[in-house]
Amino acid sequence: MLKSYLAFISFVLLPWCLVAQDFAFGSITPEDNKLVKNDLDSFSNAAVLNEYGKAYMAYNDTRGYTELIVDYHVRIKLFNRDGYRYADIELPTYRDESGGRTDALLEIKAVTINIVDGRIVSIPLDKARIYKENVSKYVTHTKFTFPDLQDGSIIEYSYRLVSPYIFNFKTWQFQDDIPKINSQFEAIIPGMYTYNVTLRGPYKLTTQDAKLDRGAFRIAGRDIDCSHMTYGMQHIPAFVSEDYMTAASNFKSAIYFELSDVYRLNGANLKITKEWRNVDRELATDASFGSQMKRDNVFKSLLPEILKGAADDLGKAKALYRYIQQHIKWNRYLGKYSENGIKEALEERSGNIGDINLALIAGLSAAGLDAEAVILSTRDNGLVNDVHPVLTNFNYVVAKVNIGDSYYLLDATDPLLPFGLLPLHCINGKARVINLKKPSYWIALTSSQKSIVRYTLMAELFPNGMLKGRLLIQSLGYAAHRKRRELAEYTTVEEYMEHRNEQLIGFDMLAGEIDGREDVDVPLTERYEVEMKLYDSLASETVFFNPFFLNRIGKNPFNLDERTYPVDIGAVREDRVVMTIKLPHGYVLKSKPDDSNLTLEDNGGRYVTQTQLVGDTFSFSQLLTLNHTTYPPESYFALKELFGRIIRQEKIDVMLSKTNGK
């Protein structure tokens, strides 16, 4: 079972401690040279030989605030060409909205080390090959690629990061997607700052020591003692990502620091870790959050037209939801705060997540509906801390409208989302509901609809081996949303069919129509005329064909020997196939795949198949259900075995034989 525990580290002087130190740059060891791929595992194409980091603080008299300084040094061995991607380095730096406070990367040093004819050859990185890329107005990536790579190259780099953002100190990732032989981190924290320190992940520290550094931090002419912590892990397995998971950061072994208190020089205590009542007040009065929620006046002149024909509160909510979906296009920026204000977003027809969904909340309120904001963390951003409020954990906001005894969670940023359905990237643990008049509270984020796909094939198999018929595909819930997003890439049904025919092998869509492409509140229904060449002819007395050509799984999504984190599929899944095929006269069913009825414990899922021949009519049905949105690591092998048996079943053909050889 995945172990995740909270370690509140007390900074005390231990009677003994390990002296941590950086390793010499460019000085590789015989062990570094000898290490080969299979020494660690059978699948990693690179490995971290050594990694060291140190984070400490210094007061910047010129700028007038304390800065965090992080020194980082790593040595990596590339076993083969597939490992070369670890030689493409991307270092993010951040800046605030004003641009006044920004991270700075200094002293970047990098070298490629090769063994040529038994000699060590070092090729330093040309500084001219380091460049910057502005990802957004808040984030810049510094990038470089190591030169002269070959199988067995050792790459090494170091840098210093100077940052004004001391709240989260420095997260140290012990575990990565390649194995590490040694990883060590030092944190030197002035006594005037108190951090909550959290160790996440399945692996324990091999080193955890502390000492006191007298007078190591100087501010306003005073020397402040520092707690000097050393954390280390050795022989850390690679973290292997797999399908159906939330952010890898939820499960990798890592140390997290969160600032809780600052003790000022005058003796006052500034409590950084706040109560939710403090956060509620802060959000309610924030110009980019609560103030935008209150701007119902923006909608006063718009409401008569928007609500025309709305018979009740639910109709009003749906009308406002559709209006925002159609009138503000998402500019691809996340954020729980409004970027430019909801009035400008409506006028410019563009905005970030905060602009769009805070505008929806204001509109719902203007219509007299009970609307609240819901702040959350997306699946790739990690889970939120529900012990105490950490606003930086939240990167997204949606609307909550309460109607009668029900409520609906709404995200108007995607015009293809039906009313009441959150995108799967928002289904991630808990979220906090912010009400401008009442205390905030937690709600669980769960999928409100299933992901359902139903295939129905009515066809006839002709003596020349050609199967012709009509295929009906119905998609509901999340499956319909995925299909609509796919269809949005094509201007016509014919263009989509042409693309699908390029992907299908031996299966052609000849003509088709799609209903529900624009009306997202109804199932998506596809109807196609199809044909498929099953074999050359039925001249022989015995013929074979495989009935698993619709919705074939083909590949097991679960392949790990061990998975230490949950399987999170986001929404309950149901896939159903029903086919009825009229055969040429005079054939009997000689052999077929065994009928299946496989189940997971605790009603976790089911796989059922049935194959039969009645007269000249061949029928086949298949049902796969996954009834839980999340499965614990203990259920992993059952899921792996279920999909393994499905794939083995898919390889078995139906055998038909002529009656009396005629």
State Rg.
Answer: 30 Å
CATH topology of the largest domain: Immunoglobulin-like
Give the strand content: 35-45%
Please indicate the count of domains: 3
- Termini gap: 60 Å
Supply the CATH class of the largest domain: Mainly Beta
User: Which range best describes the helical content: under 10%, 10-25%, 25-40%, 40-55%, 55-70% or over 70%?
Assistant: 10-25%
| CATH hierarchy: architecture of the largest domain | Sandwich
Largest sheet: 8 strands, mixed
Give the strand line-up of the largest sheet. 5-4-8-2-1-10-13-12
The SS-based structural class is: mainly beta
Based on Cα principal axes, name the global outline.
Answer: globular
Spans of 5+ residues with little confidence (pLDDT < 50)? 1-19
**Strand element count:** 35
Q: Treating each run of at least 4 consecutive H or I residues as one helix, how many helices?
A: 10
Mean pLDDT: 91
Describe this structure in words.
- With 662 residues, this protein is mainly beta.
- It folds into three domains: 45-271, Sandwich (Immunoglobulin-like); 276-444, C8orf32 fold, CATH 3.10.620.30; 451-661, Jelly Rolls (Sandwich).
- The chain is 14% helix and 40% strand.
- It has ten helices and 35 strands.
- Strands 5-4-8-2-1-10-13-12 form an eight-stranded mixed sheet, with no helix packed on it.
- The model is unreliable at 1-19 (pLDDT under 50).
- Residues 1-20 form the signal peptide.
- Residues 301-388 form the Transglutaminase-like domain.
- This is Transglutaminase-like superfamily protein.
- InterPro entries: Papain-like_cys_pep_sf, Transglutaminase-like.
- Keywords: Signal.
